[in-house]
Amino acid sequence: MKPEEKAILKKKLLKNIQYLAIPDDTLESWIKYFGVPKGILDGVVQDWRVVYHVGANGLNDCVWDPPFGIHKVDSLLRSVDLDTVMHNRDIGEMFLNFELHPSARKYTGVDVGPLEFSDSECIARLLWWTKDLMGFSPSPYNSVKMYFISEEIIRGDRHDPSNAFQWNRCLLDLPGSKEYNPSIAWISKRRTDKSLASDFVCFIDDQHLAGSKSKRITEA
Fold first, then answer.
1. Who contacts 70 (Cβ-Cβ below 8 Å, separation ≥6)?
2. How would you class 12 by CB atoms within 10 Å of its CB: exposed for 0-12, middle for 13-18, buried for 19 or more?
3. Are 175 and 186 contacting, i.e. CB atoms less than 8 angstroms apart?
4. Strand ranges across the sheet with 20-21
5. pLDDT, tens digit, for every residue of 28-73?
6. How far is residue 96's CA from residue 137's CA, in Å, rounded to a whole number?
7. Distance between CA 54 and CA 30 in Å, rounded?
8. pTM for the whole structure
9. Any idea which of 2-11, 50-59, 96-105, 179-188 has the lowest mean pLDDT?
10. Cβ neighbourhood burial of 97 (10 Å; 0-12, 13-18, 19+)
């Protein structure tokens, strides 16, 4: 690599050093990593996407990544109506929020020697991953599973009146029923005052929050 390109890749990798640790056991396999250019100006790469190729050492062939369900747009529609206020946000470092199983770490060694880090930047040449990482086939399943567990904690007690996500019943508005109203969702959570409950759904790492407008906002 050109010195300019190497400097950019080095800076990029430094952001992930916090998710790597010195092996406390013998490494049995390393993984390849390389930078994919994201932009070139005057022949110089301006940014890199670092790819960790876990499949290169056969690790992905030795693990199981089961299928799993995720939210669809229908899930979001259950939480919105004409008076809903919405906010979208990205869950940063979705994979790196969650731990990699200790039994897999000895196969995810990373050699950072070619980037010539100083001792203050990186205290060892050989490191291993401690978090879910890109290129590891079970990472999407593991991360989404752990996120859904955290969702249960975030939602709290649905019967607590001080809880922003409080609700006490489900309203069914099914086609063919006598009281069917096509302007509202087929199934929705309702608060004690019968208003639509606040809620949130997440599409992998893209979170959508929905809440009913307050009286003050509505009047304004």
1. 144, 203, 204
2. middle
3. yes
4. 20-21, 126-129, 109-111
5. 999 988 878 877 888 777 777 788 888 888 899 999 888 888 888 8
6. 14
7. 9
8. 0.77
9. 2-11
10. middle
Half-sphere exposure of 147 (CA within 13 A, CB side): 26
User: Is the pLDDT at 216 greater than 70, yes or no?
Assistant: no
Q: What is the distance between the alpha carbons of residues 189 and 78, in angstroms, rounded to a whole number?
A: 8
Give the separation between CA 135 and CA 129, rounded to whole angstroms: 12
Number of domains in the chain: 1
Task: Say how far apart CA 72 and CA 110 lie, in whole Å.
Answer: 36
Give the domain range for residue 114.
3-219
Give the chain as a 3 state SS string. CCHHHHHHHHHHHHCCHHHEECCCCCCCCECEEEEEEEEEECCEEEEEEEEEEHHHHCHHHHCCCCCCCCCCHHHHHCCCCCCEEEEEEECCCCHHHCECCHHHHCCCEEECHHHCCCCCCCCCCEEEECECCCCCCCHHHHHHHHHHHHHHHHHCCCCCCCCCCCCCEEEECCCCCCCCCCCCCCEEEECCCCCECCEEEEECCEEEEEEECCHHHHHC
